[in-house]
């Protein structure tokens, strides 16, 4: 490698490792080629360092003949680009688009932010934060604002609000169209919950709207009739106090019907609950439900209202237990949405957001993990021995930079290597494992990735607790007079960023597992390692949170955001995308 | 059985089974309302002709609103929808359960499932499934139902 060129690149402000990679990849074709290479896999502004006032002009990514397949646009950015991002034809295994703000940042970890106006620019799409920040902090000009690691383009709606809104809409439509609540819900669903459009059409031609939505005549039913048959469920005789049936004449007593309907509603059914007869397709009318279980009728209506989320392609329930919020994206094309509880969801597969891995990779990966669960079980996630003094160490935090309490040895929890001089533990070493049989090699390779995937998940769990603590201490602080909200807000934001990094790191190991070896993977692993190290640093700082390290925390938080962004845009654009 | 209302139903089912058992179905054990063992016999003219199998029924307090847990015990028939641990992949036992179904109608469904089979094979995922289902109830499995016709 040409040391002279390397020196020049470093002088221009490029990170030495990036520069080395660029020179390797361009086979020393010259300085321009190397620079062009660097710009071609990353947004120009991201790689030029602060200190560089160089005259290097960013090479724009050349237009490509191939366009983005599904017409997904990047949104949520003021400098919204309407042009399509090019995709390298060779990169077949992945191109995942997420909406993301443009970042003007530096990769140089030594950069100081004091006079850095670009870090403020970063905030320009984050209205919420800007307001809070600028209202309250005239005397905090030296402070560092914290960026969101990942953008949020969805709205979060509280569960109670949704039900309330939807119920009102159902009631309105039901009374105007003179239909049952179920029928009104079906009508609304037919019009994607656009009540005005529905009514417009309804006034034009009521019959047609009703038929098109597939609303049938209400079935005849009885809820108290003396019958010669017994209840088909419990065998009780049926009289005028308890004999219930629909037009299909599946006779049962009121109590059995009530138990049956309660279970159905409990299970989340609302529209189209069928008769209890075996394979009987007869739908139970709303009024029948109201008569049989009047005390549960409101619950039934709530279930109807819930379809407002379930049948809306732009909405998802937050999967966090007991959260109950709904997430509404601007369009169906959105790939992720973020809940106020911290959960980030993949809009396509409804699992935890798994960028940079795509949904198909996740499916294969999860299948593999299930199949190999026995083999992977030996990985004991929370206890290991100190590699130096062998004393058992229990992990109780997210940070993987461990210090043995007994012998003070510092080591990496993931690879058990010495922390001093530890700089790369994300690359699976083929050579080291080359003397083993193929199956053994394959298994070890899988375990290598699985172990890291798992460790980041474990860390994320600890760190999610950290975030909850942060939110609690914010409430605490608000009640005390000696601190202002703004003084502690950053802890929540930092833990938030930390969790984003952790989650992404977890899934980088899925992405990496399926990424073929080659220059692209080298670049990916470089960025992954970079993010990993910054994340551990942030995690360590946040665990030892105190008043004096707040500036460090903020700096490292922003640095982690930046690294995260680099990694994801690298993946998004293809590392060697031309 | 803790629910007296539904104990009555089981009592009635038991009586019906005793008095007029369908062809090929026999009560082996029905001392309690928690667990019954019902013997079924492969119908003549089918590949299971003359073979005897035992079905174990476990009822919880919500039966018949909740389906019973039904598995083969002892000699498990070799069938593409029956795992060697006795678990049965049949939708009416899980998702398509209806409280209108009875022990007798379940036995008949299982007999008909046996009768329509033309080749004695285990499910393709048998060893994989039974390894994961150790100590579990088939009701805890999220079944992807095979073609119900076979
Ligand atoms: Zn009854
Ligand atoms: Zn019916
Ligand atoms: Zn949530
Ligand atoms: Zn997905
Ligand atoms: Zn030690
Ligand atoms: Zn390591």
List keywords for this structure.
heterodimer; A: 578 residues; Four Helix Bundle (Hemerythrin (Met), subunit A); 3-stranded antiparallel beta sheet; B: 150 residues; alpha+beta; Ubiquitin Conjugating Enzyme; 4-stranded antiparallel beta sheet; 4 strands; binds zinc ion; transferase (chain A); zinc ion binding (chain A); zinc (chain A); repeat (chain A)
Please list the strands of the largest sheet of chain B in the order they lie side by side.
Answer: 1-2-3-4
Helix content of chain A: 40-55%
> Between the first and last Cα atoms of chain A, what is the distance in angstroms?
24 Å
What's the Cα radius of gyration of chain B? 15 Å
Bulk shape of chain A: elongated
Low-confidence stretches of chain B: none
Ions, cofactors and other ligands present here are: zinc ion
Summarize the structure.
Chain A is mainly α. Chain A has helices at 3-11, 16-25, 31-41, 44-47, 118-121, 127-136, 159-177, 181-190, 195-204, 206-212, 254-266, 286-292, 297-310, 359-371, 373-376, 438-479, 485-514, 519-543, 550-573; strands spanning 155-157, 221-223, 243-246, 252-253, 315-317, 326-328, 336-338, 344-346, 383-385, 392-394, 401-403, 410-412.
Structural description of this entry:
- The complex is a heterodimer of chains A (578) and B (150).
- With 578 residues, chain A is mainly alpha-helical.
- Chain A contains 19 helices and twelve strands.
- Chain A folds into three domains: 41-141, no CATH class; 155-315, no CATH class; 365-380 and 425-573, Up-down Bundle (Four Helix Bundle (Hemerythrin (Met), subunit A)), CATH 1.20.120.
- Helix content of chain A is 46%, strand content 6%.
- In chain A, the strands form five sheets. Chain A has a three-stranded antiparallel sheet with strand order 1-6-5. Chain A has a three-stranded antiparallel sheet with strand order 2-3-4.
- In chain A, helix 2 (16-25) packs across helix 3 (31-41) and helix 17 (485-514) runs antiparallel to helix 18.
- Chain A is elongated.
- The model of chain A is unreliable at 43-141 (pLDDT under 50).
- Chain B is globular, with a radius of gyration of 15 Å.
- Helices cover 24% and strands 16% of the residues of chain B.
- Chain B has helices at 4-19, 103-115, 126-132, and strands at residues 25-29, 35-41, 52-58, 69-73.
- Chain B is an alpha+beta fold and 150 residues long.
- Chain B has a single domain (4-133), classed as Roll (Ubiquitin Conjugating Enzyme).
- In chain B, strand 1 and strand 2 (35-41) form a beta hairpin.
- Chain A binds chain B through residues 232-236, 250, 255-256, 259-260, 263, 276-280, 371, and chain B through 5-6, 8-9, 12, 62, 64-65, 92, 96, 98-101, 105, 128.
């Amino acid at each position: 490698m040409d040391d002279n060129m390397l020196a020049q690149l470093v002088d221009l402000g490029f990170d030495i490792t990036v520069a080395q990679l660029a020179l390797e990849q361009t086979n020393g074709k010259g300085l321009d080629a190397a620079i062009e290479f660097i710009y071609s896999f990353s947004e120009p502004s991201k790689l030029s360092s602060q200190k560089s006032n160089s005259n290097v002009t960013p090479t724009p990514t050349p237009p490509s003949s191939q366009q983005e397949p599904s017409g997904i646009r990047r949104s949520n950015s003021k400098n919204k680009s309407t042009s399509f991002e090019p995709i390298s034809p060779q990169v077949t295994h992945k191109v995942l688009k997420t909406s993301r703000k443009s970042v003007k940042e530096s990769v140089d970890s030594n950069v100081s932010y004091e006079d850095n106006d670009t870090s403020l620019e970063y905030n320009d799409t984050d209205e919420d934060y800007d307001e809070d920040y600028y209202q309250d902090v005239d005397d905090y000009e030296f402070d560092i604002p914290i960026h969101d690691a990942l953008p949020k383009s969805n709205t979060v709606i509280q569960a109670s609000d949704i039900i309330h809104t939807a119920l009102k809409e159902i009631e309105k439509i039901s009374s105007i169209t003179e239909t049952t609540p179920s029928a009104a819900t079906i009508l609304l669903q037919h019009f994607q919950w656009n009540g005005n459009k529905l009514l417009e059409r309804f006034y034009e031609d009521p019959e047609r709207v009703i038929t098109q939505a597939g609303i049938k005549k209400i079935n005849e039913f009885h809820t108290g009739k003396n019958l010669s048959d017994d209840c088909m469920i419990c065998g009780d005789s049926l009289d005028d106090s308890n004999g219930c049936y629909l037009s299909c004449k599946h006779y049962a007593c009121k109590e059995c019907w009530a138990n049956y309907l309660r279970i159905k509603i409990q299970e989340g059914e609302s529209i189209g609950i069928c008769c209890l007869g075996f394979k009987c397709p007869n739908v139970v009318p709303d009024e029948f439900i109201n008569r049989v279980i009047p005390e549960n009728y409101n619950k039934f209506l709530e279930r109807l209202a819930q379809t407002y989320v379930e049948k809306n392609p732009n909405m998802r329930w937050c999967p966090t237990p007991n959260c109950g919020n709904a997430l509404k994206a601007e369009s169906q094309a959105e790939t992720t949405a973020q809940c106020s509880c911290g959960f980030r969801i993949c809009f396509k597969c409804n699992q935890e957001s798994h960028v940079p891995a795509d949904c198909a990779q996740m499916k294969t990966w999860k299948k593999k993990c299930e199949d190999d669960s026995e083999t992977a079980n030996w990985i004991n996630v929370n206890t290991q021995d100190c590699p130096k003094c062998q004393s058992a160490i229990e992990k109780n935090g997210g940070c993987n930079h461990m210090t043995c309490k007994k012998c003070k040895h510092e080591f990496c929890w993931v690879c058990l290597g010495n922390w001093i001089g530890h700089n790369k533990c994300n690359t699976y070493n083929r050579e080291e494992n080359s003397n083993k049989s193929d199956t053994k090699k394959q298994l070890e390779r899988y375990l290598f990735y699985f172990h890291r995937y798992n460790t980041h998940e474990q860390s994320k769990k600890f760190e999610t607790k950290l975030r909850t603590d942060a939110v609690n201490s914010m409430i605490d602080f608000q009640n005390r007079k000696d601190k202002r909200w703004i003084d502690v807000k950053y802890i929540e934001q930092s833990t938030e960023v930390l969790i984003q990094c952790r989650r992404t790191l977890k899934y980088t190991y899925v992405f990496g597992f399926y990424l073929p070896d080659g220059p692209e993977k080298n670049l990916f692993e470089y960025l992954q390692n970079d993010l990993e190290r910054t994340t551990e640093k942030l995690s360590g700082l946040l665990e030892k949170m105190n008043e004096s390290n707040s500036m460090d925390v903020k700096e490292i938080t922003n640095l982690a955001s930046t690294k995260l962004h680099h990694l994801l845009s690298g993946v998004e654009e293809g590392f060697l995308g031309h | 059985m803790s629910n007296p209302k539904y104990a009555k139903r089981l009592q009635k089912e038991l009586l019906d089974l005793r008095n007029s058992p369908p062809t090929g179905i026999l009560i082996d054990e029905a001392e309690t309302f928690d667990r019954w063992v019902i013997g079924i016999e492969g119908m003549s003219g089918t590949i299971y002709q003359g073979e005897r199998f035992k079905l174990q029924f476990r009822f919880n307090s919500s039966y018949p609103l909740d389906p019973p847990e039904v598995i083969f015990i002892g000699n498990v028939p070799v069938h593409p929808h029956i795992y060697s641990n006795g678990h049965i992949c049949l939708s009416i036992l899980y998702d398509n359960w209806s409280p209108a179904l009875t022990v007798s109608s379940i036995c008949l469904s299982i007999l008909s499932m046996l009768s329509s089979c033309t080749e004695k094979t285990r499910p393709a995922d048998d060893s994989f499934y039974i390894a994961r289902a150790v100590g579990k109830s088939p009701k805890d499995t999220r079944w992807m139902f095979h073609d119900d016709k076979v």
